[in-house]
Amino acid sequence: MKTLTIAGNIGKDAVIRTTQNGEKVTGWPVAVEERGPNGKRTLWFDCTLWGRRGESLAPHLTRGSRVTVSGDFSTREHDGKTYLTLKVYDVKLQGDAERRQDGPSDNRSQGAGLDDDIPF
Fold first, then answer.
1. I need a surface site. Which of 42, 58, 72, 119 has the fewest CB within 10 A?
2. Is residue 114 part of a domain?
3. Cβ(66)–Cβ(60) under 8 Å?
4. Which candidate, 101, 1, 4, places its Cα nearest to that of 43?
């Protein structure tokens, strides 16, 4: 198993699908910005979460929301392109884009001393 943790923005609202065996799988893309000496680029990961947990989280996995996910990393080939995939086993919702753009969260305005710039 190749475990990978990424943090990024959800590119499209999560979609729940049903396999031929009747299992539910929730899927959504996550964009991760990579910065390097040649500028920045965006890496896209196709994330999937199987079962009831994915169904429960789907309404919260919406376009533009920030999320941190961990899971089993792999790639798949389709029509000559390579796609990065993550079979998710841990999801942390980081809040939505609108709330961050509006200003401080309720915790910070109440003097909790939280700082978004802290990387952990």
1. 119
2. no
3. no
4. 4
Structure tokens belonging to residue 85 = 């995939």
Residue 83 in any domain: the answer is yes
Contacts for 54 with CB less than 8 Å, ≥ 6 apart: 14, 16, 24, 25, 26, 48, 88
Look at residue 115 and tell me if it is in a domain.
no
Distance CA 114, CA 105 (A): 9
Give me the CATH number covering residue 23.
2.40.50.140
> Under a CB-based contact definition with an 8 Å cutoff, are residues 86 and 71 in contact?
yes
Q: Amino acid identity of 5?
A: T
Q: What is the DSSP string of 35-76?
A: EETTEEEEEEEEEEEESHHHHHHGGG--TT-EEEEEEEEEEE
Residue 1 pLDDT: 77
Token couple for 35 = 């910065």
* pLDDT tens profile 72-100: 999 999 999 999 999 999 999 996 555 44
Angle at 69 between CA 34 and CA 24, to 5 degrees: 130
